[in-house]
Amino acid sequence: MSYSDLKNKVAIITGSSSGIGQACVEYLGSLGAKVVVNYARSEEEGQATLEKIQKAGGTGILVQADVSNEADVQRLFSETVEAFGRVDILVSNAGMQKDSSFLDMSLDEWNKVIGVNLTGQFLCTREAARLFVKQAKNTPPSEDACIGKMILMSSVHDVIPWAGHVNYAASKGGVLMLMKTLSQELAPMKIRVNAVSPGAIKTAINEEVWSDSEKSQELLKLIPYKRIGTALDIAKAVAWLSSDDSDYVNGATIYIDGGMTLYPGFADNG
Ligand code: BGC
Question: Are 218 and 7 in contact, with CB atoms under 8 Å apart?
Fold first, then answer.
């Protein structure tokens, strides 16, 4: 697969100053897409990510925006259009955890996580869909061509319940149905919507687990393939879903989890 159709396509990747988003923006940039590096708080990380892409010969811009804020999301898209003239791909990735037992969880911890992980994806996908339709009106594509692609970042916790993380699990369960419903509604308009659901991926979000050897061993018991994933494992699937190679894929979730969703506890039990 060469992904040659990605060359010069414009891709917004939210939450791309670190972790999975950063790997996606670097990988799409290396495949010739014009990329938008987005961060909410750390300009320094965003700038460093953009510089890495540019040093590798890629093209991109840096835009600050909090995806849970409607005006910020509108500005993210308008600044992209100002710089590159259009948007072809949205990787709706920005996400966070604020863990707490259910009994102790504050409304603020609930609202923050739902705000970024679920409402943020609603705001970004709505903006992208509106823009894709507007662009297609101005420059009608050939009859069968897709007018835009969206990849939503979900998690294995869109199907695996997760005690102590109810805000996160509820947000990702919501992303699963957001993605499927959008795909059903937007496919006739030739917009492709899909999701990826990572398992345990070595990033800052779960550093507390993989940096501790005892906790890592416990985690590996949940992964039949016996390795913790890398952000690049996810970026490669995102690139495939962003390209025309996956043109007939609509409303799908790809679980990239070393088998975490296979109920590994049942391998020698049940
Ligand atoms: C979470 C990680 C966790 C993984 C597997 C991800 O969605 O963000 O913290 O390690 O799921 O449980």
Answer: no
Site to probe by mutation for ligand 1, drawn from 171, 206, 256 as the one with most ligand atoms within 8 Å of Cβ, is: 206
**Distance between start and end Cα atoms, the chain:** 41
Nearest CA to ligand 1 atom 5: 200
41 within some domain: yes
Q: Which residues form ligand 1's pocket by a CB distance below 6 Å? A: 97, 155-157, 198-200, 205-206
Q: Is residue 81 part of a domain?
A: yes
Over residues 17-71, the pLDDT tens digits come to: 999 999 999 999 999 999 999 999 999 999 999 999 999 999 999 999 999 999 9
- In angstroms, the CA 86 to CA 20 distance is 24
Query: Which residue range(s) make up the domain with 114?
Result: 4-203+230-256
> Whose CA is closest to atom 8 on ligand 1?
205
Q: CATH no. for residue 67?
A: 3.40.50.720
